[in-house]
Amino acid sequence: MEILEELKAFRCKDIPYSRVLSSMCTIPHPIAVKAHVEFINTNLGDPAIFRGSAELEREVIGMIGKLLHHSNAKGYVTSGGTEANVQAVRAFRNLKKVERPNVVVPESAHFSFDKAGDVLRVEVRKAKLDDEFKVDVGDVERLIDENTVGIVGIAGTTALGQIDPIEELSKLALEKDVFLHVDSAFGGFVIPFLDLDVKFDFELEGVSSVTVDPHKMGLATIPAGCILFRDSSFLKALVVETPYLITEEQFSLTGTRPATGVASTYAVMKLLGFEGFRRIVRDCIKATRYLVEKMNDLGFEPVIEPVMNVVCFKCEKAFEIRNELYKRGWVISAIRNPRALRFVVMPHANFNVIDEFIEELKKVLRKF
User: Fold this and answer.
1) How far apart (Å, rounded) are the C-alpha atoms in residues 302 and 359?
2) Residue 218 and residue 277: Cα distance in Å, rounded?
3) Where does the pLDDT of residue 245 fall: very low under 50, low under 70, confident under 90, or very high at 90 and above?
4) Of the residues 210, 238, 269, which one is the last residue of a structural domain?
5) Pick from 230, 251, 269: which residue ends a domain?
6) The CATH number of the domain where 11 resides is what?
7) Of 41, 51, 166, 339, which is the most buried if we count CB atoms within 10 A?
């Protein structure tokens, strides 16, 4: 028991989610935790042994595929959005087989694409954003050449929660005969439940792959990301032989991988259903609007009207305010372009949390 007390002491040093307004992760649903524990000693790296876990993963891919307008999508549950994005670029590179491959991503793309470029030796070209902080499709087209293996659109940017014009990118991908990957690591469990007339997934013919993270707004336990492809040809492009296993090949990036994320995702999706997620998203949007009202009262203006439960406020002293709040036990983000305070209003960030934060922010602002 002494060891457990030591561990508890370390855990108590972590900042609780009730003081975190910057993370795209949140407290997992209780049923997700129970499912996680049930599958704690599984290894999907050896599906011949963990047959039930492998079957469950296929079920989960079908469920998420249905959410994204393609029940027959192929893929697997990853460690998170970074692995999913790397695998998408890797599949595109392996299928196109050009000598000097490149991918075109928005300037707002997650830094995981820089990792993908470094690991895979793929040039990452960054397209400019328009006045609404969406990728400029004309600039994407300008950057495409004979060595371009794919282009990327973001459905829920990390900084602003903005949605790129995926429909236009889909048309461009078909016209230029390149693959299109949509990074909806955050937006995948948000956009389908918003009252928005926007297409961003496999509903569009040009979309080849989609990243979505159940451990964000899907309320699954960490780690639980997901990469979905339009068909099995993309998985085949990722295959390596596994000669000492009964299963003779593997397409995942990591070898050993637990089924905990699979089980927790399945449990939450089965329990809540699409309507359950819709209620959670609506609550987060209400809380986001409440935060905007409170920040407006303090003189802060949003960079853009929030599209989802991510919002930034113009602030020249964003980094100084962020640092002072951190000293006081509150965690928010700051972004450089434009200079702004960034918030992610997850399910744990209810009205009471926002009220407590605003009171602390008022004290901080007196220093500046």
Assistant:
1) 19
2) 8
3) confident
4) 269
5) 269
6) 3.90.1150.10
7) 166
